[in-house]
Amino acid sequence: MKVIALYVLRLPEDKETKDDSKVEILCEADDADNEVGYIKRSAFRDFMKFSTRTIALRTDEGGMQMVEDAGYKMHVLRPVDGKRIVGAAVTDPEYPDRVAQGLLSKLTKDFLEEVPEENFGNRAKITFPAIHSMLRKYQDPKEADPIMKVQKDLDETKIILHKTIESVLDRGEKLDNLVDRSNALSSQTKMFYKTAKKQNSCCVVM
To answer: Domain residues for 118?
Structure first.
């Protein structure tokens, strides 16, 4: 059981946009080095970002979505803060959902408390080392006990479980088309996506 990546994202002001490249990553931490081989590492990181951005754009304020697809789980939490902040985690399928939910609640809460809103527009000004310590600390799900202190907030969160990223999309949207049109994905990452979907598991692509 492991947490592979954590992100704090900020949604665009345009609520109608479906362009994943408009979603800003304010801070991030990942363990991709231990997940895939060197050659595929950059594409794997880009695809994790693309997936979490895509889900984040389609998550209502005060909601959480959990998507299990291609051998991974992607958890996205959007707190009710009016600041368009979203927390995201990529885990393996065995990682407990409740622990991931608590982790994202703590991640977003601590970020909003520690990082001034006026710095959101300039990633270079954002200092939030806690995201790296959380990635290390919560590799062990037993660390769930301290984050269950935020259980009250989670109980008020609308949680939606999906089996695939496609099920998150609006009617008529196709994931293949989003990947092809994405301005945030390189040609190498798009090829990585297509290969991973054919094999139905990113984690076996080394």
So the answer is: 3-204
